[in-house]
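User: Fold this; tokens only.

Assistant: Input:
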Amino acid sequence: MAPDGYFTDPQGRIRPRHNRKGGKAVVAALAVGALAAGGTGLTTGGGTAGGSATSAHGKSAGKDAARKGQRGEAWNRIGLRQLRQTAHVATACGSHSYGQVQQFFRKHPCRKLDRLLLAIGDTRGNTVVVSIAWVRMPTASTAAELKELADTDGTGNVEPLAAGALGLAGVEFTGQYYGSRRDGSLVVIAEAAPGGGRPAPAAMDDAAEVAAEFPPP
């Protein structure tokens, strides 16, 4: 039996009940096919992420670029750059989620799930890992219900892709750095977490908010 604050998923794994404000979702270091997005490797320097000083204008400009699908420009506006990525497409959301969100998908199956995991970094060697999920629901009303549920603390969420595909282990998405939006029947959920070095909280917060603005693949 899982202890208080946790639940056992269908695969028998003990998972925390969390979302935005508490708990942890540990991303296992499992190998998933990685797609190189540049020639730069990941680093684990100890500096503070330059994104910590991102101005409100810089984040706004980053969001504008993200809405246009200009990924590199979006990260650049908040003082970061993309290092690596891995992606996965599915048509069943229930098997790629947990908690109450998973129960919701069992009653209201999604039409498509696109997931992306990115490693982005600053000039000081700090790395931020960003998870993005684009969930296409049958209707705008079910999409609104999903977003409200996923945005609520302790309800579970869509599972991030395994960080092992980026050459990282032990990456933890706590829900602290989180962004989401809805556009009709589409729900976008983004989270950020430290991947190496000491990225500033403000940089991870900016990364999650900007990531939520990207259009689906």
